[in-house]
From TrEMBL:
<keyword id="KW-0547">Nucleotide-binding</keyword>
<dbReference type="InterPro" id="IPR014746">
    <property type="entry name" value="Gln_synth/guanido_kin_cat_dom"/>
</dbReference>
<dbReference type="InterPro" id="IPR023168">
    <property type="entry name" value="GatB_Yqey_C_2"/>
</dbReference>
<dbReference type="Pfam" id="PF02934">
    <property type="entry name" value="GatB_N"/>
</dbReference>
<dbReference type="InterPro" id="IPR004413">
    <property type="entry name" value="GatB"/>
</dbReference>
<dbReference type="GO" id="GO:0006412">
    <property type="term" value="P:translation"/>
</dbReference>
<dbReference type="GO" id="GO:0070681">
    <property type="term" value="P:glutaminyl-tRNAGln biosynthesis via transamidation"/>
</dbReference>
<dbReference type="Pfam" id="PF02637">
    <property type="entry name" value="GatB_Yqey"/>
</dbReference>
<keyword id="KW-0436">Ligase</keyword>
<comment type="function">
    <text>Allows the formation of correctly charged Asn-tRNA(Asn) or Gln-tRNA(Gln) through the transamidation of misacylated Asp-tRNA(Asn) or Glu-tRNA(Gln) in organisms which lack either or both of asparaginyl-tRNA or glutaminyl-tRNA synthetases. The reaction takes place in the presence of glutamine and ATP through an activated phospho-Asp-tRNA(Asn) or phospho-Glu-tRNA(Gln).</text>
</comment>
<feature type="domain" description="Asn/Gln amidotransferase">
    <location>
        <begin position="341"/>
        <end position="493"/>
    </location>
</feature>
<keyword id="KW-0067">ATP-binding</keyword>
<dbReference type="GO" id="GO:0005524">
    <property type="term" value="F:ATP binding"/>
</dbReference>
<keyword id="KW-0808">Transferase</keyword>
<dbReference type="InterPro" id="IPR017958">
    <property type="entry name" value="Gln-tRNA_amidoTrfase_suB_CS"/>
</dbReference>
<protein>
    <recommendedName>
        <fullName>Aspartyl/glutamyl-tRNA(Asn/Gln) amidotransferase subunit B</fullName>
        <ecNumber>6.3.5.-</ecNumber>
    </recommendedName>
</protein>
<dbReference type="GO" id="GO:0050567">
    <property type="term" value="F:glutaminyl-tRNA synthase (glutamine-hydrolyzing) activity"/>
</dbReference>
Amino acid sequence: MAVADYEVVIGLEVHCQLSTETKMFTDCAYHVGAESNALTDAYSWGLPGTLPVPNQRAVEYALRLGLALGCAIRPVSRWARKHYFYPDLPKGYQITQSDLPYAQGGAVEIPDRGAADSEGFATKTVRLHHIHMEEDAGKNTHGGHGSEGLSLIDYNRAGAPLVEIVSEPDLRSAVEAADYMRELRQLVRTLGISEANMEEGTLRCDANVSLRRRELAGSETYGTRCEIKNLNSFKFLEAAILAEIRRQADLLDRGEAVVQSTLSYDTARDQTKIMRTKEAAADYRYFPEPDMPALRISKAMLEAARAAVPELPWARRRRLLSLGLSTYDAGVLSAEQGLAAYFDDALAALKPGGEGTAKLACNWITGDLLKLVNGHGHAIEDCPVTPSWLAELIALVEDGTISRRAGKEVLDKSYAEARSPAAIVERDGYRQVSDTGAIEAMIREVVAANPKQLAQLLGGKDKLRGFFVGQVMKRSKGQANPKVVQEVLATVLAEHRDSSSD
């Protein structure tokens, strides 16, 4: 039986590290990239006598996320201890939330690749089961460091604040799973609560995968799920899910049962491997955290978090589409909060125009400007060309003051010098010549100097029109208005046709 005869059912458990200055239950500093074991304290090491105190900023960030995703926020939630032994967990348990997480329900919108709606951006809704807060474990490094089999532990990350976003089993392909992760990454970055860098481990996930016969699609009957742990890139997320689909399909085709298991993904062999079997909540011996009271969320906390939630990525994309932008352009501009804000500010600085105004601003930003920004290794927030300066440049090109080609040169200088485009145009003489009298004089000089080409043009070799335009632009040192040159050239050529016919 082919893989296509099965429907894939996927749910993701996404771990997102919050960008707070200190850890989840202690005032120990934390940031990514510090020297190993430099950011630890007695609590991080799990020493006796230490007591946990929740990080207020982490709670505020978690509330923003829950509200942005449309979750129901519990006014009272509870902390719990999740017990398991692993070298990177010094206490022997992890403080998390179990039966009463702070956020319930909610949903994530992902692109629906198989549909199109009237707005040009179709989405599929992936339901969430809940979101809970917890602390991270340390980081193990196995092998390397000049000694095969050596394992090292970095406790810097131990106790870092996390939210775990648990979806319902609504995803139906590896591609959808990657799309879901991308949407979450974009959302938490937009909210300003996490760097969400999968390579650094501040965003990672576990994937629950099961198969069922195609005829059972849409029912409540599911296959046996297996969980792939610690996937930290979009590429490996897709590859691991595809590998697990193949493994389960092979078992079912042979008439064998899929055993509920926890898996790892071997990137070198492109295979999932069983780490342990039949892991369940009971194995963790959850019980209420005795050293902390219940977490109570006041109305004031909720309102403050709600006020801090900006325009969300999927809402922004729809707004950009309504301005006449393509789905691709809307996706690029809404990918990062800073880029979206730059576009909005530049568009606001432009004089109201026709339907093409937004597209015009988009083209300059996503083409010419981002080329400079990326080439200099800058973030858009650090771009020396302000949104109002870019709007000024666009206006200079559109009203014919300077040519499009000159506009690119002016943009380069504006970026390099942090000087306004208008000042550069005046200083360096980029203003176009649009005086018809002056342009006509240049055209007549060019025509008189090139009788052979004129005869060929009048004889039907229309491509030579570009030759005459080029000669006029050269004579004017690039400052003649190309549109005016074309118009006046047509008039001069008409005169020569009339005289030759006489």
